[in-house]
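Before we proceed, please read the two lines closing this message. Tell me what the token row says about the fold.
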Amino acid sequence: MATVHVSRHPLVQHKLTLLRRVVTEPKKFRELVRELSQLLLYEATLDLPLRPRMVDTPLAAYDGSEIAERIGLVPILRAGLGMVDPILDLIPTAHVWHLGLYRDHATLKPVTYYNKLPPVVDVDLCLVLDPMLATGGSAVAAIHVLKEWGASRIKFLGLIAAPEGVQALQNAYPDVPIHLAALDDHLNDVGYIVPGLGDAGDRLFGTG
């Protein structure tokens, strides 16, 4: 089954608590998503391969290293957009492709309305970004699109997940590691994570 990594870093736990509060306004919410995304990225990229790179310091030549993989970011619209810029701050050479998926509130199934992948795979690692992994439908649909496109190495990065979503993603794609800030208790009867934080897209963009 897919490996599930739930961060236990004190900074992650602290910031996640602030993020969950109902009184956290959109500006602060976006700042916390930014900070949590960077902390999760740090943990999710510990296995990136390196290649040698020689550079000159003011005093001498130095045998250094650089990342050897080309990385693509795949935010699931719209909430995934909040995770893109903080990751680009750390990996400015990453490609960004957008997948538009929304959850039908009647069926809880994902509906694809936008796909901006290039014709040919030109990266080695795809990071699928979505703050919430609830039913898992959107993540499974996004990874299905990437697999059909030809992506071979994929990781999922999310802030909060429900066990149901993790199970669905593991069942569909056991080769995709899942990196989370928290694994919550359950989904309620309308498909929201409990305790969760509500609708991440609404809270990011102030549309709730």
Q: What stands out?
A: The chain has a mean pLDDT of 92. The chain has six helices and 13 strands.
